[in-house]
Amino acid sequence: MRISFNESLGNLNGLEKLYEAKELIVNYNPVLNNINSLEGFSKSWIVMLYFNPLPEDFCPLTNFVKNKRSGDEFYTQGNSYNPTMDDLENDKCAKLK
């Protein structure tokens, strides 16, 4: 699943029941300010969130981290906050204010 180049996408409402995807890529969404609808998401080979300048809270992806399997990947870059998989595992999922 790829969510890319949406000039007016502010959130991911409607994805609350998405819990699995082969890959989840969310990129180049300039006004995306939260990913709260991904709280139930828990299985993927790769999750990539990059060049979404506003999100500061990646805590909704902690279920993905808790359920990760060997070889699963998590990648962030160019966001307001860019946590690693280790950050999410160690409760550093949101930018400190």
Question: What is the compact description of this entry?
Answer:
Helix content is 10%, strand content 19%.
Model description:
With 97 residues, the protein is α/β, with parallel strands linked by helices. 10% of the residues lie in helices and 19% in strands. The chain has two helices and four strands, in the order βββαβα. The chain has helices at 62-66, 85-89, and strands at 2-4, 23-27, 46-50, 73-77. β3 (46-50), α1 (62-66) and β4 form a beta-alpha-beta unit. The longest helix has 5 residues, at 62-66. The model has no long low-confidence stretch (mean pLDDT 95).
Per-chain topology:
Layout: E1 2-4, E2 23-27, E3 46-50, H1 62-66, E4 73-77, H2 85-89
Parallel strand pairs: 1-2, 2-3, 3-4
Overall pLDDT metric: 95
- Tally of DSSP helical segments: 2
Record the strand order, biggest sheet: 1-2-3-4
**Radius of gyration in whole Å, from Cα?**
12 Å
- Unreliable spans are none
Please report the total strand number as a whole number: 4
The CA-CA distance between the termini, in Å, is 31 Å
Broad shape: globular
- The percent of residues in helical segments reads 10-25%
Estimated share of beta-strand residues: 15-25%
Structurally, how many domains make up the residues? 1
Largest sheet: 4 strands, parallel
SSE order: EEEHEH
